[in-house]
Amino acid sequence: xVNRFNWVEIRVRDLEKAKNFYGSLFDWxxxxxxxxxxxxxxxxxxxxxxxxxxRMPKEKPTGVLVYILVDNIDETLEKAVKFGxxxxxxKTREGENFMATIADPDGNAxxxxxxxxxxx
Length: 120
Description:
Layout: E1 4-12, H1 15-26, E2 29-31, E3 40-44, E4 50-55, E5 63-69, H2 73-82, E6 86-94, E7 97-103, E8 109-114
Parallel strand pairs: 1-4, 5-8
Antiparallel strand pairs: 1-5, 2-3, 3-4, 6-7, 7-8
């Protein structure tokens, strides 16, 4: 099913504090996927959608970013601009999948996610 919430990212400064807070508050299982170049921790809520946590540098904003699953990311990006939105981060490939970030006319950012192989 497309056009539904697919993934949630929580962008934080201190991953340990965030892991302790969210894990304790909601009983989520949070697993580290960190190396020296970046840190992305997976959140297992026991249900779908799942999520992750990014450690964000000081120059990048923190906050929550939701991803909406779409059938055709290119068409959705075009429609977003047509209806008054703007592209914040262009389409990028993640394995066989694609993602992008857009903002609505009020500046609320959210992600788009498309599974599978689509022509670029």
